[in-house]
Specification:
By secondary structure, this protein is of the alpha+beta class. It has three helices and eight strands, in the order ααβαβββββββ.
């Protein structure tokens, strides 16, 4: 009888562990849509984002080819971010962006310290967003009032897609950031 009770308890524990370790689900959410209640929670996103990511490409979605984007994140042109490594550790969420692109306006080898988190308001229809603030030497994160947000669109643990809304004259377009995980 005791073996039977232990077997039932072991099976129940295994089921609980497997259901609590759910992976982030693929989203077909595009511009202006939301994941709703069937998408990953802010906590799941936060846990899935931890680690190192390399930015492979930045695509334009619903942005006319003639529209010029001079720089992003008040930092540099989009091309300077291609190949950058985004380190997003857990704990205190103090990470970095290391630039690896060379060019006229690029700072190859520069590292920008950031504080990151996942922004989520449970009472709205928006899905969680990745947010970060750039922290310069001698600054404290709580004193920095300027930051940036990107819509979290997709992650499977090895790839990550975030969208940055760009206001246009007739609506909104997106810059689509495509990352892959860096294996340590």
């Amino acid at each position: 009888m005791r073996k039977h009770i232990l077997s039932v308890c072991a099976i129940f524990t295994l089921v609980m562990v497997l259901t609590s370790c759910g992976a982030q689900r693929k989203s077909s959410a595009g511009a202006g849509s939301s994941l709703g209640s069937d998408g990953p929670s802010a906590r799941e996103w936060r846990n899935g984002l931890k680690g190192k990511w390399v930015l492979n490409s930045v695509d334009r979605e619903d942005i006319p080819a003639a529209y010029t984007i001079k720089n992003i994140f008040d930092e540099a042109p989009v091309d300077c971010f291609i190949g950058s490594v985004w380190t997003l550790p857990g704990g205190n969420y103090q990470g970095s962006i290391a630039f690896n692109a060379s060019g006229t306006l690029c700072a190859d080898g520069a590292v920008r310290n950031i504080v990151w988190s996942v922004y989520d308001i449970t009472n709205d229809d928006l899905h969680p967003q990745f947010q970060f603030k750039k922290i310069y030497s001698g600054e404290r994160a709580r004193n920095v009032t300027t930051g940036y947000r990107l819509d979290l669109s997709y992650s499977d643990g090895q790839s990550l897609v975030m969208r940055m809304p760009i206001p246009l004259d007739n609506g909104t377009g997106n810059l689509v950031f495509n990352f892959s995980r860096v294996q340590d």
